[in-house]
Amino acid sequence: MIFRPLLGTFLGLVLALPANAVEVRVQPKAVLELFTSQGCVSCPPADALLAKLAQQPGVIALSYHVDYWDYIGWHDTFGAKANTTHQKNYAARWRSGRIYTPQMVVNGFKGVVGSRQREIDAAMAMTKLSLPVSLDTSNGMLTVDIEGQAGLGDSVVWLVTYVDRADVDIEKGENEGKRVTYTNVVTSRQAVGMWEPGAGAHLKLPLSEVITDKNNGAVIIVQEEENGLPGNILGAAAFQQ
């Protein structure tokens, strides 16, 4: 995998947090990735459910808008080819020949229909995030500290940015005439480093390049990779401004 630095300004490894930093350690129980589309008539119930689940303690909920429904009459205002590729990569890992919306992926472990809470709850009960991730946003920097943990494999550290809420009036397509509220809409996803079970990972990123006029929140996700495809999520932490 080739890593592209965050806006060309990846600052590399650091050995410790700044002395005046206030360390915040967050260990959520689940990362939920909803693949959705403004052009999908079945998606609004899943979008509403994601908003509900996002209120649960320990849940990081993200909305990935795909672009493959744009052809039916409405161009998704958040749709991105990169999101479609991310979903296809999950399908390839699970050796599935299809992708669909709404789909909820739980901790990178299992994908279920995004509007079926019982299936989502069952998937959350089957897996957990065992790797603590600490974030600090003092001194104009995002400092990420991820401890080592034996028994796990090398993993990718991802930075995912999002906007926490968006109300969209849909004028064409299957949802024509509806006003839909979207929660934690992903605006970018990029690799910023590697995590190793022996050494852990310690990263610093300019906060001004993480939080911009296009987003107001960010998530650090540590995710296994299997033959170039996304594996289980080991740990995550989120913050919002």
From TrEMBL:
Keywords (A to Z) from UniProt: Signal
Signal peptide: 1-21
Coiled coil start-end: none
InterPro entries linked to this entry: DUF1223, Thioredoxin-like_sf
Pfam families in UniProt: DUF1223
Protein's name in the database: DUF1223 domain-containing protein
